[in-house]
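Give me the fold.
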Amino acid sequence: MITLTIDEKKIEAPPGTHVLQVALANGIEIPHLCYHPELSVSGGCRLCIVEVEGYPEPVPSCGLACTDGLVITTHGERLHELRKNVLDLLISDHPLDCLICEKAGDCLLQQYAYEYGIKETTYTPTISSTLYQDDNPFFIRDHQYCILCGLCVRICDEIVGVHAIDFAKRGFESNIATPYDGPMIESTCVFCGNCVQVCPTAALMPVSRKNKGREWELDRKTTICGYCGVGCQLEYALKEGEIVYAQASPDGPVNGELLCTKGRYGWDFAHSPERLTRPLIRRDLAYELGLSSEAWEQPDTSPLAVKQPKIEDDFIAVDWETALDLVASRLAATVSEHGPDSVMGLSSARCTNEENYLFQKFIRVGIGTNNVDHCARL
């Protein structure tokens, strides 16, 4: 371990660790737009500049390696004016429509503009790119809000590994684009949405987020993704009890700020009118068990062959205890009459490893058969 001083505070850090990383880990806030702890250093935004004892000019702290005895100053009049000028330049090429921007309250550029007292640019306002791309059902690319921090490019390259986007053109015409600026669906994009999560402005926004209110109007619910047994932690943003969008929780022990396509976008079933919320029993079986007073015969046409069938035509809802008792009794009767090998168990990737272990133990020991498989093999 080495010892350095940041704002007169002695801090120990592993050799080679960057100053910004150490400062943030010790509760010392340094403004930054292009830095992310999981990505390589860019040094593009220049907001994280600090003064170093013995250095003639301020340097970006995101790429400054810690060395023993380093003395750092993170705030001061000179740094304040330099950062304010950087923000002024960014604002000069950025719409000032925070009043109607859905990213308001969760935009780093807005936050820093507030902290440094910038309400308008001192330069000639120019919006270099007005390109608006809604060529996929998952997220919108609104280039007028892009500050070219490169976070989306790096996470797509370094973490996801599909290289779907990169910097295109030069100077004021620079923008983030797919190859030949084709539709996103024709690129190598897997629509994981991790680029959307790391975007510090409204340049990348979920389609489901549009016209659903500002960030402070949304409630938050942290939960575990149910699509597989990995156990990724995610956070739902809700408006009046309905999910607006999903994102990874930064402190998730399994996944950090990363999610797959299913975890980030596959939640619309939660509000589907076709979602089953109670166990169902076929009407003829319900009559046989005395759960219904109406005699019923199964029609010749299967409900599965009917377009948009009405559930109540063929089934009645029962409580879970009744349903589980019925399944258990029928399963026991089948094993007793036809033997344990007449039963097969198919497990689910949406269960945890522990649940899958218990399931195969139930099939092998409780039922007495090795006819057990897993949906991931299908």
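The longest strand covers residues 233-239.
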